[in-house]
Design a protein that fits this description.
Length: 100
């Protein structure tokens, strides 16, 4: 994303971690095998930290836009947007899990 290059770079890292973990999980769906992946915990912790940084950057970006365009952006409630993003991620996860 051209307007938020740092957040885009961080999200690419998070996405690559998630895809790698999921690809290994598909190979063997046994919980004990899946959770025994090398560096899985470290990757998930780092991904979570990066997602928090991305969320902070997104909030700052939207706040800046709100200052420049108060009428059009003022209607955006960050909590609602955060919930929509979480719902989208959940739907994407379900689609991926069911092979869609």
């Amino acid at each position: 994303m051209a307007q938020m290059p740092e957040e885009s770079r961080k999200f690419t890292i998070v996405d690559s971690y998630w895809r790698a973990i999921m690809m290994e999980s598909i190979k063997d769906t046994n919980c004990l095998v899946v959770t025994d992946q090398p560096n899985m915990l470290n990757r998930l912790v780092e991904a979570n930290n990066l997602l928090e940084e991305i969320q902070h950057g997104l909030n700052a970006y939207l706040e800046m836009k709100r200052l420049y365009f108060p009428r059009s952006v003022a209607a955006i409630n960050l909590t609602d947007q955060y919930n929509m993003i979480n719902q989208l991620v959940s739907v994407m996860d379900m689609d991926h899990n069911y092979g869609r």
